[in-house]
Request: fold
Amino acid sequence: MTMEFQELLLPFGLTLFAGLSTGIGSAIAFFAKTTNTRFLSVALGFSAGVMIYVSLIEIFQKARTELVTVYGDTNGYWIRVIAFFAGILIIAIIDKLVPSYENPHELRKVEDVSKLSFDKKKLLRMGVFSALAIGIHNFPEGLATFTAAIHEPAYGIAIAVAIAIHNVPEGIAVSVPVYYATGDKKKAFRLSFLSGLAEPVGALVGYLLLMQFMNPAVFGILFAAVAGIMVFISLDELLPAAREYGKPHWAIYGLIVGMMVMGASLILFI
Reply:
């Protein structure tokens, strides 16, 4: 085992952990008759807090350090800002390409899906399209986690945990419609589980395409873009989803706690 391979184990392992947490959501859907809305509001808010804090306070600033070193203060600043909004644009375009009525971020409660009219073809289609949509969304998330972890493991761990929390309700969105359409728990779990594999696939593609070109300039641009992606996900998906569960104040409490935990952990470990 070479040193280079050892250095890649943690980034790939984190993306795998984050992606396959959709399976946790799938398991919860099978065993829970109702959705714990307070817990999900707090958890999604916590995830958003972690992402926003680490993106704007740490990753965005790290991008500045890398880019200013290469391009100087003015050019480095502009490149960082452009890359940040380019990251937002990329994830926004991906989000726009997913049909809104099948978007997995239009979250559903376990009990709500169980009350749907049993048009099995419609339910199955809902689950399959949710799985495909989640795969599309998870691809850049995997790249973001991998990029952060390979440069600074603490950032990668923080993002992986936040994305893992975020992926739990997505697992519910996939598995519940498929289960009610087919009556097959294994099939529903498998589809949910596989949708999360887009995370490590995104990391692998990022490694194959980008690692050979890695230098401070490329790292700086990627870090700024990752910050943009994480902020967009937090503001467009996580916080609205938390409010959709009907506990907006708990979502904000979770967000603040997430920021506090992230700030404290970075002081302790970086």
In short: Residues 17-29+51-269 form one domain.
